Amino acid sequence: MVGRLGYQKDPEYFAALKQCVASQDGTIEFRWIGDGDVVRRRDLERAGVTVTGWLNDNDLVEELEAAGIYAHTGRYEGFPLSVLDAAACGLPVAARAIPAFDGLPVAQFESLFEHAQAIVEFFAGPGSDSDLAARNAELLKIMSPVEQEAALRRLYDPFAPADESFVIATGARL
Counting Cβ atoms within 10 Å, is residue 73 exposed (0-12), middle (13-18) or buried (19+)? Predict the structure, then answer.
């Protein structure tokens, strides 16, 4: 998991996920990339989670590339960029089901047990990683600049004057 140790990212769920996974396979390590609330950090470390603290971009990419799977545990988000970072690093994503992922090809799990089971099964053998890799490829395609520009055009074109091009607030000329 990547992010600030706070309510939104739900490190308590992450610790519970680690414990649930450990009850089935004690060899799987859990790491939290980030920092924040001291009590939450201490609780994660007591649960056996390594907390890296904040990392620079290069170290973050190294951590993601060295991992086996990215478990996103946030209880709510707009859309977490850490999921895109993980997917871009080729890291399969197993996420807690939240509305931010609705309609997207992110593997989502409704319960703690289902989430833990998916992680255990991923490390148990081949098969699930190909599905997760396909989901990553689709997610990265949907979230690409080309697709996002096309989505903006579909949204704004009906309101643009027919004889003029328009500029999106970011300054990008469409």
Answer: buried
* Tokens representing residue 149 in the block: 């520009």
Are residues 155 and 96 located together in one domain of the fold?
no
pTM of the prediction? 0.83
In whole angstroms, give the CA distance from residue 11 to residue 116.
Answer: 15
Taking the chain, what is the end-to-end CA distance rounded to the nearest angstrom? Answer: 36
Q: Tell me how far the alpha carbon of residue 47 is from its chain's centroid.
A: 21
User: pLDDT by residue (tens digit) across 11-61?
Assistant: 999 999 999 999 999 999 999 999 999 999 999 999 999 999 999 999 999
Tell me the two tokens of residue 20. 């649930």
Q: Could you tell me if residue 91 is inside a domain?
A: yes
- The 10s digit of each residue's pLDDT in 135-155 is 888 998 888 888 888 888 888
User: Could you identify the residue written with the tokens 């396979």?
Assistant: 25
Q: How many domains does the chain have?
A: 2
